[in-house]
Amino acid sequence: MNADQLADVVAGISDPEIDVSLRDLGVLRSVSLAGDRIQVHLTPTRLGCPALGEIARRVRSALADAAPGHESEIVWERGAWQPTAVTPVGRDALRMAGYQVAGAAPRCPYCGGEDVVRAGRFGGAVCKVPYDCRGCGSLFDVIGTAGCSAGLPFTDSDQGGPR
Ligand SMILES: [Zn+2]
Prior knowledge:
By secondary structure, the protein is α/β, with parallel strands linked by helices. Helices cover 23% and strands 22% of the residues.
């Protein structure tokens, strides 16, 4: 396994909340391999804040299967995620799950209408902004617009240099 192959392993892991790969979500930044040490740089979507622990677990588990005996470290690059990093495949998957990726004007993922209003509540998730579509009456979430800096973890281990 070289770093590129390991990157493919990580890229194919699905987000715990939406069935879309980390690559298509734009979450995977890089994978490097130094000796028996794998370092994975990920950037959390604002959507996935509560799921980071689960993503880290999946990544570590997949790498343990793909490269036994290696040590994996996950580094979260906070704030580095951009809605533009989401691939067309990722956008489609998000849309089917009822999410709209911010970037242009919010648009209803169900009817495509632009006559939408921000719903007056934030629910429990700071990562999503709810909108109402006045065209078809659907409620949908826009991700990537709300600030979500609160509670972001953690690098997976200390950030010191190579041991
Ligand atoms: Zn609509």
